[in-house]
Amino acid sequence: MKIAIGCDQNAYALKVEIMRHLDDMGIAYDDFGSHEGESVLYPNVALKIAEEVSKGTYERAIILCGTGIGMAITANKVPGVRAAVCHDVYSAERARKSNNAQVMTMGAEIVGVALAKKLVDAWLASEFQGGGSTPKVELMCEIDERYRR
């Protein structure tokens, strides 16, 4: 699995820590910025990553900003992408297990490094369970298709 990762300037330090964590786990990733000292508009980062996830270039992505909310809103504008804000382990697990979210977002102003690593671990260890969630995810995909036009 190869992951896309990106952030705005508010979450740069957290992104660096998560990349170290991914390195320690042997998980490959591509860094979409921002880079040290660089100020960006977070929707540009979220859009670039979400488009790559939508095309299938990456199975999953981690996008960070101050709260994670703006990144999730932007990523969810791209058809085929399901992004979830994850600030606790249960939400990180359910993002995958119930919603088949390929993108997790977090806020550097909300979670610290230790919790962020736990969230990444939980999210990466979780897979879509199907079952009763399948019709819900299928409906999300149908809605995507309806508005893709």
TrEMBL record:
Keywords: Isomerase. SUPFAM superfamilies: Ribose/Galactose isomerase RpiB/AlsB. The keyword Isomerase applies. GO terms for biological process: carbohydrate metabolic process. Signal peptide: none annotated. It holds the Pfam family LacAB_rpiB. GO terms for molecular function: intramolecular oxidoreductase activity, interconverting aldoses and ketoses. InterPro entries: RpiB, RpiB_LacA_LacB, RpiB_LacA_LacB_sf, SPI_LacAB/RpiB. Belongs to the LacAB/RpiB family. This is Ribose 5-phosphate isomerase B. It comes from Geosporobacter subterraneus DSM 17957.
